[in-house]
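Data's thin. Show one?
=====
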Amino acid sequence: MPIDLKNYFKFSPYYANNENLSKKELLELDEKADHLPMEIKDHLLSVETSKTIQKIVSSHTLTEKQVIIIAVLVRRIFLKSSSKNTLAADLVKYANIDATKARQITTYLEQNIFSTVPTSVTQSIPKKNNENVINLKQK
């Protein structure tokens, strides 16, 4: 079954609300994402992650705007700009969701998104080591 691209981009943690970001903010997002382990990048871009977040609209009777905020908060957690420990409070603060529903959504996200990401992911892009660079101009 083909994916609904409009909803994929709307609810994907990586793409959610990107149309409202400045070029500088988009570059910063790309830079942070480039340094993530592949397992986390896969979750940020996954169709299943987008669908999981989209399901929150109907299961918790929220507006699309609120669920897009949830997708952005999930992105911030993956990028380590925010913490899972503050997710419920962030949902109350930024998405204007009542505390009980925020805790339910946090539990749902923990079970359906965060628990599937390995906690000890250590793969990263190697940093450039100038000691291993040969300067051909000096030869």
The chain has one domain: 5-118. Residues 15 and 101 are 24 Å apart (CA to CA). The longest helix spans residues 64-78. Confidence is low (pLDDT under 50) at residues 120-130.
